[in-house]
Amino acid sequence: GEQWGAGHASFGLLFDIDGVLLRGRTPIPAAKQCFRNLVDKNGKYKVPVVFVTNAGNSLRQSKAEQLSHLLEVEVSPEQVMLSHSPLKIFTQFHNMCVLVSGQGPVLEVANNLGFQKVITIDMLREAHPLLDVVDHNRRPKDIIPPTKDLPPIEAVILFGEPIRWETNLQLITDVLLTNGRPGNPMTNPYPHIPVLACNMDLLWMAEAKNPRFGHGMFLVCLESMYKKITGHELKYEALIGKPSVVTYNYAELLVRQQAENLGWSEPVRRLYAIGDNPMADIYGANLYNRYLQASHRARLQLQARACISILVCTGVYSREQQDLLNDHEHVVAEHGHRDFLFDHNLTQASFVVQDVREAVEQVFKQEGCELS
Questions:
Q1: Are 41 and 78 in contact, with CB atoms under 8 Å apart?
Q2: Closest Cα partner for 258 from 45, 18, 22?
Q3: Residue 40: how many CB atoms within 10 A of its CB?
Q4: DSSP states of 311-328 as a string?
Q5: Which family does this protein fall into (predicted)?
Q6: 98: left (phi > 0), else alpha (psi -120 to 50), else beta?
């Protein structure tokens, strides 16, 4: 095999996290071994590695620390991309007053991405105590507390699945129907104020035997409620996270930065995306590959030439599940997002392997390099 040296290889690896490296907080056995092989004896990566997850309920820093601890290799925040990371470049919204929904340190996440004026769902319900009344225990008891004045909300940012869906669905709808002034009577403006959503995953794989609801499921609820009430389709200003092209574009940028840090002189020509979800990881990698092929003629030297998808069977996708679903009178459930034109070919991976270790071995074989 080829000897490793600065500027030799010209590919980078994109790893999904849930279902590929971890199940909940438990590392998948093959993952540790695989990462031991990906670093040299000084702990330096042999190839550029970026972690691309649709999770968005944490800061890059804490995700990097969690991965370092579980995989027992050094992972820097610059190698981690959460579903909301590309919002950094959506600077036209950074000075607007935005309502954010999700869980974890959403305020801190929003500030880190560049948003200056942030209102959380909790701030909104405290300012308007009469809005959140599905749970009887949350209703004001005797005296009605005063309403606080908040600035009008100019955009809504959905970071990830929230904890109390009824509260979030109600308040977000209030904001959309009142043009960002939820204490006021409904004006039902259309088009409504901008909505940006991160992470369209319908399902994801934790420790349970079967997949769990993801943020995509929350979006399905919000979309159908909005349509039921107004007769209009909910519109997104942006949908980011896998499978969107903007996400892979940003991931490629991070891979290039990693290659520079490793002292590579060659441009990164191929990206290998390893994931467990045909509708997110595989669809996204194949969509990006199609985009790279289409822009090939007009291309800048900087761009990769291909993005190759590799599906592992340790997460959402398993061969048995797939056979079960396919046998069922050939009805294929449509798990993709409403706004992504569904093309079944894009869910077909270039390679299907058992686990992440086999995936990385496959890549090195393709590239004619030794992994030892």
A1: no
A2: 45
A3: 10
A4: EESSSS--HHHHHHHHHT
A5: Belongs to the HAD-like hydrolase superfamily.
A6: beta
